[in-house]
Amino acid sequence: MPLTFADPSAPSLPLHVVDKAALAAWRETLPAPAQAWLAGSGFAAGLGEICLIPGAEGALAGAVIGYGDAAARARGRFWLAKAAETLPAGAWHLEANLLPEEKEEAALGWLLAGYRFGRYRAATSAPGAMLKAPEGVDAARLEVIANAEALTRDLINTPASDLGPQELEAAFAGLAARFNAEVTVIRGQELLAQNLPMIHAVGRASPREPRLLEMRWGTEGPRLTLVGKGVCFDTGGLDLKPASGMGLMKKDMGGAATVMGLAQMIMGLGLKLRLRVLVPAVENAVAGNALRPQDILTSRKGLTVEVNNTDAEGRLILGDALALADEEAPDCLICMATLTGSARVALGPDLPPFYTDDEALAAAIAAGAARARDPLWRMPFWTPYDPLIEPGIADLDNAPAGSMAGSITAALFLRRFVTETPRFVHFDLYGWQPVAAPGRPKGAAAQGARALLAALPDILGAEVSKP
Fold this sequence. Notes:
By secondary structure, the protein is α/β, with parallel strands linked by helices.
């Protein structure tokens, strides 16, 4: 079901937003019965705290949600999402003195709270409360963003039994068809003929053919290329994962799902740019023809790679895809992947790292992340660690020995495949929400796309935001 705001002409009830400091003064503006009700309920305006307000005849007259204090707000985001999940059905409008960016966050959080993954079970708790878009908020833009994020969540939430490379290709083609984008697909043995050997090597053991998906959209403006890791399931290959490590591997195509969501935002908003999306889609399986430890692959770039762990497969398929993207030297090249557990150890599930050598690009992304309430953290392409990915027998090692700096060495590995494009950034995503939070149910999580969307005018020029 699409995520939308309420009809602006529909009758609606007020949802007051009150912070702790203003609670006493605001309460005195209410009729005496409502004041008594609030006092009796113990409402203290804590962040996200909700209380219904009765009218004179006992009918519902509205509700109030606490805005807490500055310290509480700094520790969370999408505080209004709780109201979307708990208020009675019907249309609501905000009665609040909020800054424009606060209104936008509140409205987006409400939309995101409406997401439900209902493919295998009918949703039993879908919110019935709908919000009228607050004054000054670009409702159409937020609806595009929320529904694109829902696409990302749907793809990651779908198990590998129903989302292998072929099904990911179908979703990719369906997205392209909605916006009249062009799609090209290279499958199976044709990957070798088209000089994409590492994508083939990782996916050849699965009966579900490996493939490279490509989408092109837009005829004018700067060139933006998105590359997303599409490992539809990762057993680890012959370096088989234990059960505890395999349990969430349906989400190993989270990079692909994220770039598809970002592409939907870009196309849905009609941004003025030339978009290219590349997704190497594979299943890392176990069979007699599987990639072996210490095999040496010759990549599209001509670099040789010693495979010291078949479970470090994502950087292999991305290496070929990035080399292909780099040949066109786009104005900006963005790589998104659920790549390493090391990133989670360093920063946890909510804060994906990104890597770039371009200071202006890094500043634009950081600013976009803050505006979009889509947190990210810059990590370094630490060149002194380059020797760790040089095994001696080949140009590169896909899995350096030891457990230190794993996210950094993976990023350094990918950087070797980008030599013609100065503006390159790599995101090491988690793509999963382990504990439910406002606007983010437990399960698939979209990370980084909203930050990048907000940053694109600074990265590529303000004209891209004008369709």
